[in-house]
Amino acid sequence: MDFNSLIDGLGTHTLDGLTRGSIYALVALGYTMVYGVLRLINFAHSEVFMVGTWTVLGVYTVLGADSDSGMGMVILASLLALIAAAAAAAGVALAVERIAYKPLRKKNAPPLIFLITAIGCSLVLVEIFGHVLRVFFGPPFGRAPVGIPSPIQTTTLLTIGDVRITNVQVFVIVGAIVMMVALDMFVNKSRLGRGVRAVAQDPDTAALMGVNQDRVIMLVFLLGGAMAGVAALLHTIQFDITKFDIGFFIGIKAFTAAVLGGIGNLRGALVGGLLLGIVEVYASTLFNSSWADVTAFIVLVLVLMFRPTGLLGESLGKARA
Amino acid sequence: MSDMKEPATDVVAEPADEGRKAGFMGLPSLGIADRFANLPTWAKLPIVLLLVAFAFYLPNLNILPFAYVRTDLTSGGSDWGGVLFVVVIYMIVAIGLNVVIGLAGLLDLGYIGFYALGAYSVAIFGSPSSPITQKIAERFDLGEGWAVPFVACIPIALGIALAAGVTLGAPTLRLRGDYLAIVTMGFGEIIRILSRNLDGVTLGPKGITSVPRPPEPSEGFFSSIESAHWYWLALCVLILLIFLTRRLENSRVGRGWLAIREDEDAAAVMGVNAFKFKLWAFAIGATLGAIAGLLFASKQSYVEPTGFALNLSFLFVAMVVIGGSGNMVGVMLGAFLITYLPERFREFQDWRPFAFGVAMVAVMVLRPQGLVPSRRRAREFEDRKHEAEEAAADV
Questions:
Q1: Predicted complex ipTM
Q2: SS3 A160
Q3: Which residue of B has its CA nearest to A106?
């Protein structure tokens, strides 16, 4: 127990936590939206994020962007990486839906079967990057971690007290919040978003009112996937690394964040993600970084036991009716 | 004799509709299970005995065409007895997990936690090199190298697993199914991280060596290299557990589980205390997992945290579900396939997890009830499908 270092660096730790948490929050959106509409925990979502990180690496490699690039190149590479990662992640999410979940939905399979199929999909995606692609293309694919030379250099923007705020932190937090606000507006204000909310509230009635359920489901997977792609870009900017199984822990934590905030609730994902990020950073300062991963699980178990509907309540439809 | 006749009429009635429904990939079912179930006891017994005898003979199998199943034919192959041992250990795991998933319908993704608890309890209390035994020995002046004997470790391990099962189950079994899955997964991961971080108890990543062996008829009978002996021991345990679980399945508790799995609300209305029975399933599953872990640790004579990664937990679930959850023969087949095939085809070992993922998705999408489903379970799936079709037709 190291209270002193926690108190001393409270500002820095909180900022670290917010940075970490905003990535969890973005990934959590995918879990939350799919759950809200289908009552299904899309276990493969963590791998959608993983695919996003590899796409970012691919874009940087193709453009030759690295830490020496000029300003124009940095902006171009980041924009292209953003678009490509979001597109690739959304594509993978959609493919999983079409190949694995749709046939099961037709059979009205019990939730357990969905969950196991999702684990299978997740394994397939992990292995594609961990082994299959290596057989065909060699490194960087494979089981070793791969560095991603981020073109954005970390510089201190301003210092408040003894808290240094870096451009990367600002970029990550602001980027995540902008994406979430945009998504929230889309779901609340647009015609398509109304369809999503309708299906989340009552699929049968929504179908009677002329909402194409199948299209809504596709849309939800696409949006969730795109958010995971953006999260992947922000993650690589912050950590400069990817790995074939990078999705696993991020996925677990993002899911915890979604449950913490109230699964099926978009704003809940933001609250849950930021909160979990902060709790995790505090816990790893208090105890030791090897305990950080346990924190997420313990928080999850406690939330499920005492407030299974999460902090902000559950339903995608009702919470923002 | 009169009770023998009744099922016989069943046989005539069944194949007509059963043949098409339960057949594998559209092929008509052979109905082996039905035919076997309807044999009189005097015919069943020799068949079972023959199967058991064959299982015991397996490590020495060397008659040619059949010997191709051995895994040690090439120089890089794995020790055949060792593979058989692991197959049997995983069959025990599959039977235990089947109680939780197949019978009670609870998805437990953290089963590895109980397996690890079994392994670690026997190591922590039975090994002279573990910090806990050393402290106990020091405190009570028991002398250097003292440790709890293997036989006494068994009740300790089972007790710990049972306690963990109840402690985990009591607050979480009230949760919805998919939440339960995540919480149990968290539990499995917490156990692994604890075993890695609690240096003072588990020696952390170094692991604990000299885990005790069962009492030996002669010196070195159960040393790690005598895998055939270990296989026979595990097989005996497996047979005992199959017998016990069978009894359980057909008991009041077993019927309670089925009722809960099929419709919890209806079961509750009929007076089945769902929570109590679920907790039973969880606790029994935990104990069986611990038995498997205990045997495994004892054969390895060494435990360390990386052996209990969450992937293994998914593997366990896959055994049950691919084999056919709810059906003991099915889950044992699942355990066999998932353990044996990768060992037999070691040259493709890098492809194993990939092939495994593809198989998982393919089996679930094409045949969600598993390769060898229990008949009741297959019917449930069929029902759900019809419901979906009717609902679709209504709209």
A1: 0.80
A2: strand
A3: B388
Q: Which residues of B touch A301 (CB under 8 A)?
A: 172, 183, 186-187
Alpha carbon distance A125, A88 (integer Å): 13
Q: Which of A45, A59, A67, A36 is nearest to A259 (CA)?
A: A36
Supply φ then ψ for residue A153, to 5 degrees.
Answer: -85, 140
- Provide the strand spans (E) within A4-152: 146-147
Residue B172: its chain A contacts at CB < 8 A? 301, 304-305
Distance from CA of A156 to the nearest CA of B (A): 35
Minimal C-alpha gap between A312 and chain B (Å): 17
Chain B: nearest CA to A207, how far in angstroms? 9
**For residues A203 and A108, what is the distance between their CA atoms, to the nearest angstrom?**
14
Alpha carbons B263 and A134: distance in angstroms, whole number = 47
Best of A41, A99, A119 to substitute, by most chain B Cβ atoms within 10 angstroms, is A119
Helical spans, DSSP H, in B328-374: 328-344, 352-366
Q: Which string of b and e fits A208-241 if b means at least 16 CB within 10 Å?
A: eeebebeebbbbbbbbbbbbbbbbbbbbbbbbbe
Minimal Cα distance from A105: which residue of B?
Answer: B388
Contacts of A97 in chain B (CB under 8 A): none
Model pTM? Answer: 0.82
* CATH numbers and ranges of domains, chain A: 3-306 (1.10.3470)
**pLDDT value at residue B17:** 42
Cα A233 to Cα A26, A229, A262: the distances in Å are: 11, 6, 25
Cβ <8 Å between A117 and B358 = no
- The string of pLDDT tens digits covering residues B140-198 is 877 777 778 888 889 999 999 999 999 888 888 877 667 788 788 888 888 888 888 88
pLDDT tens for B248-270 read: 988 999 999 988 888 888 888 98
| pLDDT one-digit tens code per residue, A241-270 | 888 888 888 888 898 888 888 888 888 889
Whats the size of chain B, residue-wise? 395
Distance CA B270, CA B263 (A): 11
Contacting residues for A59 by C-beta, under 8 A, at least 6 apart: A65, A77, A80, A81, A84, A85
Distance from CA of A314 to the nearest CA of B (A): 13
User: Which token pair is B336?
Assistant: 């066999």
How far apart are alpha carbons A242 and B111 in whole angstroms? 29
C-alpha closest to that of B58 among B69, B47, B48? B69
Backbone angles phi, psi at A241, to 5 degrees: -155, 150
